[in-house]
Amino acid sequence: MNLAAVIVQAGGTGARLGGASKPDYLVGGRRLLDVFFAELAAAGFAGVSIVVAPGEVAVPPGAIRTLEDPPHGGPLAGISAGLAQLEGLPDSALVGLGACDAPLSPRLFPALAARLDRNDDRDLPLSLIDGAIPAAAEGNHRYLHGVYRLGALRKLELVRHGAIRSVFSILKLSAVEDPHDWCFDVDTPEEAEALAARL
């Protein structure tokens, strides 16, 4: 898989998970953040790992921790903080976005990255594609689980508490089917049990 980097959001508390730190929430004896990184490794990822998380969250060895300043600025601010760690990479580099509460989403990264190398979307020429995202219901685009050209992310207005849909809507994106729903979120104990059953 030719991803140069992955930026994973790992902040916030899980109000519906008993107020636990989401990245530290245990499923099958493993933290959600650790499940995400295990899936990254299984997908063949060998690039730069950026974790957007507060200092009290332990990050995997080799990962770079960052956080928007001040904290609690929302996912767009988190992405901006992550991009600041990738200044040495060229605009052509492919970057995956992820979240610790969707820890199986790295399973779709190879297909998303391949879409940017070998486009089969006849409505959108390869040279115009800024990124690839998991297909979802109309109006419910999963921008935060996509793979993008770094230059495309750099041109976004990543403001604090900004509206994700309106910011990402300027990009030319190709949708990739997610037939196994790898990108499902874990927000409740019931969803955590469903994840445990899938692992």
Short note summarizing the structure:
This protein is α/β, with parallel strands linked by helices and 199 residues long. It has helices at residues 32-42, 75-83, 109-117, 150-154, 164-168, 189-198, and strands at 5-9, 13-14, 20-21, 26-27, 30-31, 48-52, 64-66, 94-99, 131-134, 147-149, 173-176. The protein has six helices and eleven strands.
Task: Describe the protein in words.
- The structure is a single chain.
- With 199 residues, the chain is α/β, with parallel strands linked by helices.
- The chain has a single domain (5-197), classed as Spore Coat Polysaccharide Biosynthesis Protein SpsA, Chain A, CATH 3.90.550.10.
- 25% of the residues lie in helices and 19% in strands.
- The chain contains 6 helices and 11 strands.
- The chain has a 7-stranded mixed beta sheet, sandwiched between helices. Strands 2-3 form a two-stranded antiparallel sheet. A two-stranded antiparallel sheet has the order 4-5.
- Strand 2 and strand 3 form a beta hairpin.
- The radius of gyration is 16 Å and the shape is globular.
- 41% of the residues are buried.
- Keywords: Transferase.
- Pfam families: NTP_transf_3 (PF12804).
- Residues 6-144 form the MobA-like NTP transferase domain.
- This is NTP transferase domain-containing protein.
- GO terms for molecular function: nucleotidyltransferase activity.
